[in-house]
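hiii so my PI (J.) wants the whole complex modelled not just the main chain, which honestly fair. so below is everything: two entries, each one labled with what it is. i double checked the lines twice but i was tired so who knows lol
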Amino acid sequence: MTGTEQTRAVVRLYFETMSEREWDDFGALVTEDVVYEMPQTGERITGREKYLAFNREYPGDWRLTVTRLIADGATAAASMNFTVGDEELVGLVYFELRGELIARITDFWPEPYVPPAGREHLVELGVTGLDRLSLP
Amino acid sequence: MTGTEQTRAVVRLYFETMSEREWDDFGALVTEDVVYEMPQTGERITGREKYLAFNREYPGDWRLTVTRLIADGATAAASMNFTVGDEELVGLVYFELRGELIARITDFWPEPYVPPAGREHLVELGVTGLDRLSLP
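here's the output for the full assembly
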């Protein structure tokens, strides 16, 4: 069983090496048979080699800032601000570790939408971006 | 500082009482000044009374199943399958506790989208729903 502090350290390193494009160090953090899933598109990538290629080849001069890192035994959840050019995205990522390595990654990229009618009496509007997503 | 196991218990109870529409017990889990944010719509609800009204009034015969609960000190991340009629959604929720109560909730509802071109050589397609979201 992987401990919480070890998980936290590995996930922190995952984002650091990704940010720095240190792909060899990045690849050393995931299992040979790592599974990466994007449930919103139904895409899955299996194996360290393909997952590394996916990251190396990811287009654009993107930058990321980690905004949350919640670790619990062999699992973790993180959120990030991700910018590429003028586009700003929020990425929500879940991790599962096996031993000292990341064995499963699940990524979500929620997008803005128009609030449904009927709750105007309860909500304040216009606070998008105030998720403190830029203030970790 | 709230401990991990206490956080886990409170968040578990949050979803249980929500599922059962036990609104008094549900309301007792959040602070008087609880803040609930939906960054995708820019909506924010402030205060226990309004947040309770929002939940009580939420339309449709919805059902939820918690698929992840990751607790870490006074913070937690959870994911759920949420169905209302024929519609199936995934909800991703972050919690911050103050003492024994939930003081801040941030909700994301990622939606399906078409995979961008250029990574067909790396991905398997058609795995939507295999996030094991129905297998906690």
